[in-house]
Amino acid sequence: MQGTVDGFSYGLVTPLVAFFMACLGGALGLRCTTRSLLVTQSWRPGWLALGSAAIGSGIWTMHFIAMMGFRVQGTPIHYDKLTTFASLGVAIVMVGVGIFIVGYRGATGTALFTGGTVTGLGVASMHYLGMAGMRLHGTLQYNTFTVGVSVVIAMAAATTALWAAVQVRGFIWSVGASLVMGLAVTGMHYTGMAALSVHAHGSGGTPAGDTPAELLAPLMIGPLCFLLLAGVVVVFDPMMMTGRPDRRDAVEAASRAGRTVRPLRRAG
């Protein structure tokens, strides 16, 4: 029989909190991407890696906060621990590939398209792998066209967010890019959920795997703590302790962004 699916069992609470987490992860990750263009070559991989982990953790946390409000009438929902962990790893790795491409190649057409596409596919892969980790008395079925729309949304918005991040034009641009990223992730998530239908088997018993309270709540503590620490690192930028960015790297970064670096003035 067709199971009744409810993705808003807690009303707007889970969508709004999920959107906030996506924006937070996006803000930290994209800010790290921006900073990577203004530091010496030795610092760049660290900033890009931190940005990748921040965005990956943010979108993963967003997804499962949103899934807290997901219900299927007639069957409890459990989660497979290995698949759930794998979805987090896929998110960080694929987002990392996209960010490193843009971080080292700049906002050129090919690099931006490739990086945005890989990042968007990372968001979509995390979502559908996370969904594959659900265990319930039923079969998940997807509308192919709507799934395709959700993937296009993720790729297009991720490309736009990365373009804004590499403009190196200050904090406001990073905030705007993070809002775009947040909309990309939440829009992709709920579009993907709109593509879902569940054919319930109606069998009794408890599904395999762990309940959301047993698995998701403890698991989200780690990414949440990481996002907090990443925020501290971004606020207390290591550049403030190591001095100004290397002049050659700053000129190179500004050149990729289409800007001119003015000579530095001495204080006094």
Automatic annotation (TrEMBL):
- Respond yes or no to whether keyword Membrane is given for this record: yes
Q: Which UniProt keywords apply?
A: Membrane, Transmembrane, Transmembrane helix
Question: Where are the bilayer-spanning segments?
Answer: 12-34, 46-70, 82-104, 111-130, 142-164, 171-195, 215-236
Q: A Pfam family name for this chain?
A: MHYT
Domain of life of the source: Bacteria
Q: Where is this region: Disordered?
A: 247-268
- Asked if the keyword Transmembrane helix belongs to this entry, the reply reads yes
Q: Which InterPro entries match?
A: MHYT_dom
MHYT domain: which residues? Answer: 10-199
Q: Which PANTHER family match?
A: DOMAIN SIGNALLING PROTEIN, PUTATIVE (AFU_ORTHOLOGUE AFUA_5G11310)-RELATED (PTHR35152)
What name goes with this protein?
A: MHYT domain-containing protein
